[in-house]
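Why should sequence recovery work at all? Because a backbone constrains its sequence more than one might expect. Tight turns favour small or flexible residues, buried strands favour hydrophobic ones, and helices have their own preferences. The token representation captures these environments compactly. In the example below, the structure is given first.
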């Protein structure tokens, strides 16, 4: 019996350690489905298959849950992108491609892709979380794009442009696809391929940037 108890002990520990991620995943699903304001903590606990008391062992509010989703789901991706792009400074076009499709593959095409819809719709309902998202996700992502743009200009590969405005423009199509996928996409009889859409955007975007082409199609 002692041996059985010892064998079961690590299993219980693993389960306990997994619960915060299960709770944040359940919270994300409900936030995207119902909206932040309409989602209740007991619904999140029920979706995760635990009691509301168990939820409170880890999170004391919906804001704490949403912050955990961003911190644990998105920030590691940004850190990985920052590390990857630091070794690509000789290829500014490759940097922009890597940023766009890393975001789509790891965020936009996953459950995390519902976050932009929630933020756009309800940021004013939870301003502290919105500021956390803006400072740690939007601003850091924008800095990556600005670095790629400045590198291309400094190397003479990109024509001089307003870096800040162009960096903001870069993310608009990806945000559009993510929001559309989590809202009106069900209305389309023939679903467009998101990667094809983003490839088309990137080709047009890069043609407008290249110094040799001066925005004129080949």
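From this structural description, the recovered sequence reads:
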């Amino acid at each position: 019996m002692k041996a059985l108890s010892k064998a079961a002990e690590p299993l219980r520990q693993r389960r306990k350690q997994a619960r915060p991620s299960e709770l944040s995943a359940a919270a994300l699903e409900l936030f995207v489905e119902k909206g932040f304001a309409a989602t209740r903590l007991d619904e999140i606990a029920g979706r995760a298959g635990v009691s509301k008391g168990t939820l409170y062992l880890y999170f004391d509010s919906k804001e704490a849950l949403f912050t955990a989703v961003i911190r644990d789901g998105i920030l590691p991706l940004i850190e990985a992108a920052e590390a990857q792009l630091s070794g690509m400074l000789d290829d500014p076009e490759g940097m922009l491609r890597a940023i766009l499709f890393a975001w789509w593959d790891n965020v936009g095409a996953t459950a995390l892709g519902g976050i932009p819809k929630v933020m756009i719709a309800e940021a004013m309902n939870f301003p502290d979380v919105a500021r956390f998202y803006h400072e740690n996700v939007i601003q850091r992502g924008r800095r990556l794009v600005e670095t790629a743009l400045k590198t291309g200009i400094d190397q003479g590969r990109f024509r001089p442009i307003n870096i800040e405005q162009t960096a903001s423009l870069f993310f608009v199509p990806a945000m559009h696809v993510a929001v559309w996928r989590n809202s009106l996409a069900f209305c389309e009889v023939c679903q467009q391929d998101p990667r094809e859409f983003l490839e088309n955007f990137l080709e047009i975007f890069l043609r407008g940037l290249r110094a040799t082409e001066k925005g004129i199609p080949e």
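A few observations help interpret the result. Confidence is low (pLDDT under 50) at residues 1-18, 214-218.
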